[in-house]
Every structure is written in structure tokens, then in C-alpha cells.
Amino acid sequence: MLRIHYADYEALRAHGEETYPNECCGVLLGKNIAGEGDGAPVNSAAAVNYVQQIVRAGNTRTDSAHNRYHIAPQELVKIQRQARGLGLDIVGFYHSHPDHPAQWSKTDFAEAHWLGCSYIITSVEQGKAILTNSFLLSGTGEDDKNFEDQAIQIDIAPNVAEAAALNQKGQA
């Protein structure tokens, strides 16, 4: 499952509308929590990617930004350092599909390498965000990686105590 605060969910959808007709992209920071007491690995469907911050990234694809995205390695390293400074991890990525469904493409799958991460896709039709789906990249490596449909839980109000507990758990 992917847990995200309503404001962050709406912000990533708005990002897709702002960059239309090109794809937007960004990074999800938070904690990857294994299923409570079930022994599930963090890259399984029983795990929860708890998003605590989203970071917009630049789409560096100049040849086909309308149907592809790329985050420059330098920017990704900078975002990863920012996450570590906050006691967070990269738990996923998001991008938009202008005038296409909120479903992963063959290119999305081929370019997905962060096992255990959520990949959010928002369909933006005629400049308006329509549908947002999330997919968990599971497996043990490139040879057996797989996208699994992932439920999205949108939290209306931030649970400050729970976020603090997650940060404590992540630092242990």
C-alpha cells in the first residue's frame, strides 16, 4: 500500500496539469515499512510506502518529453541526500501520462530499477488530472522484477505522532 497526505497527492496531480502536454516527474520521500508482524519483505505488496514529502524533478527528456521522462542522475543524488538529511528514504517516483491512461508502459517498466519503490502515474487528459494509480516494483533483481497494482491510502490530516514514530523506527 502507498500512504500519502492529501496535499501531497493533489500537488503531484497539479504538477502533471502544469507541465501538460509534457510529462512531469518527481520523487516520493518517506519510509518503507514491512507488513506489521507478517515477516513480509519491504518490496512486497504487504509493505507500506509512507510518503512524507514529494519533490518535483525536472524532466530532462528533450526529444520526447510528451511521452517520456528522465530525472538527471545529479538531481536524483541531490534529492537522495536531501532525504537522508531529513531521516527519510526514496520510497517512490511519480510522473504523468498526457492524454494516456494511468497505466505503466513498456518503457516505464524497462526504466524502473528501484525495487520496493512505488511508481505513481497520473493520467492528464486535455490538461486535467483524471486518474492516479500506483504500482509497486517488486522482485529480487532485474531478472524477476514485476509491477504490482498498489492501493493508495490518502490521509486527510497528517498524523504527527505516527510520522514521528516512523522517523524513530527508521533511525533505529
From TrEMBL:
InterPro entries: JAB_dom_prok, JAMM/MPN+_dom, MPN, VirAsm_ModProt. The keyword Lipoprotein does not apply. It comes from the Bacteria. Gene3D superfamilies: Cytidine Deaminase, domain 2 (3.40.140.10). One of its GO terms (molecular function) is metalloexopeptidase activity. Transmembrane segments: none annotated. The keyword Metal-binding applies. One of its GO terms (biological process) is proteolysis. Residues 2-141 form the MPN domain. Keywords: Hydrolase, Metal-binding, Metalloprotease, Protease, Zinc. This is M67 family metallopeptidase. The lineage of its organism: Bacteria, Pseudomonadati, Acidobacteriota, Terriglobia, Terriglobales.
